[in-house]
Design brief:
By secondary structure, the protein is an all-alpha fold. The protein has one domain (about 95-365). Helices cover about 75% and strands about 0% of the residues. The protein contains 16 helices and no strands. Helix 6 (about 140-150) packs antiparallel against helix 7 and helix 14 runs antiparallel to helix 16 (about 345-365). The protein is flat and about 65 Å long.
């Protein structure tokens, strides 16, 4: 009798487990379907808002505020009311998608992918990974140490560290929104070429002796980062967190940059900048790079200014050179890298990247 009762209890437990499993199995598709529906609704709302931007900006500027379309103030206000929400909407969408892509990469996985690759192939791979992985200037030192400890060549490591800040999703989104996909693609290609070639050149120079000696003595464990074994729902959450974190940080720079761009758009006479930032001024590209290196800004703050400069006569190559110098050779990253690199290597690093940016600037001023 006791044995029968025990078997009944086991059967009941088994049935309960099966019911729970069935409920979980039934619940998961329902949850995922609901998530797909919410994502679809969100995308539809995004498209409607984006489509209505110019109409709303015109209504607010010319009907509600009664500003004349021919006035300097009217042109500036309309520029700001259209570009600010457009750029923020693009940032939200693209950073969400890039955040999902980034959820497949951790610092450890990136190191594993690059480890053991032949040098030039490693440069190409490092440049591509630098674009899609979630690392910025503040991550430069731990990443550098981790890569060196893994045995990744110095040139490959520097390719990664150049590509990661220079070619970022914020810059791509803003360039696409303000100039179109052609200019965004030019920026992506040029930044990637500079990172790959600069890393390869530095690797050929064999400058390992200018890395601080203590770096080679450190053993790094797995760095914090996203787990690569995520469910789809977790990747969506990771993308939403990326939107919250990145947009939450850059929106003041976006608005400030667009405000400066709006002022230039409305008040600076057409063609004024052509005399010293146009194709005819041979010295404009190196001057733009020299000016851009010490400026502390990011793509969110500088691209609206670049757009306004180009509208007033600045050449594409000069404007891109200025932007790349600001974003790719920022003073904060240089100071951070000084913790692991000696000044000789930092000087070569800045020099090689600056020459690459200047050459890209001349190239586009000649052929675009």
């Amino acid at each position: 009798m006791a044995q029968q009762e025990q078997l009944s209890n086991v059967a009941a437990c088994s049935c309960g487990s099966d019911n729970n499993a069935t409920a979980k199995q039934n619940g998961k598709p329902v949850g995922r379907s609901r998530l797909y529906i919410l994502l679809g609704i969100g995308l539809a709302v995004w498209v409607l808002l984006y489509w209505a931007l110019q109409t709303v900006a015109d209504f607010l500027t010319y009907d509600l505020l009664k500003l004349p379309a021919s006035s300097h103030l009217g042109a500036s206000v309309n520029f700001f009311l259209y570009d600010a929400p457009k750029v923020l909407l693009l940032l939200v969408l693209i950073i969400f998608l890039v955040g999902i892509i980034r959820s497949f990469f951790s610092a450890e996985r990136t190191r594993q992918i690059l480890a053991g690759k032949r040098e030039f192939a490693g440069n190409i791979l490092a440049g591509g990974l630098g674009i899609v992985t979630p690392f910025c200037s503040c991550s430069a030192v731990p990443l550098f140490i981790g890569f060196v400890e893994t045995g990744i060549p110095l040139g490959v490591t520097l390719t990664f560290l150049i590509a990661s800040p220079m070619v970022n999703e914020v810059a791509l989104v803003m360039l696409y929104g303000m100039f179109g996909w052609q200019v965004a693609l030019i920026y992506l290609t040029a930044g990637l070429v500079i990172a790959i070639v600069a890393g390869w050149v530095i690797g050929r120079l064999r400058m390992e002796k200018y890395v601080e000696s203590w770096v080679f003595d450190i053993k790094m464990g797995e760095a914090n980062g996203p787990s690569t074994n995520m469910a789809f729902e977790e990747r969506v959450r990771y993308g939403l967190n990326a939107v919250s974190e990145i947009v939450g940080k850059v929106w003041p720079y976006v608005l400030a940059g667009i405000a400066v761009g709006a002022f230039i758009h409305g008040y600076v006479p057409d063609g004024l900048l052509a005399s010293f930032m146009g194709k005819g001024a041979w010295w404009s590209v190196p001057a733009a790079v020299l000016i851009g290196i010490p400026i502390y800004s990011n793509a969110a703050g500088i691209i609206p200014v670049v757009q306004a400069l180009m509208e007033k006569g600045a050449a594409l190559g000069t404007a891109l050179a200025f932007m790349m110098a600001v974003v790719g050779l920022s003073l904060p990253e240089t100071i951070i890298l000084r913790k692991v690199l000696k000044w000789q290597l930092i000087g070569v690093f800045i020099g090689v990247v600056a020459v690459g940016i200047i050459l890209i600037g001349y190239l586009f001023n000649t052929f675009m």
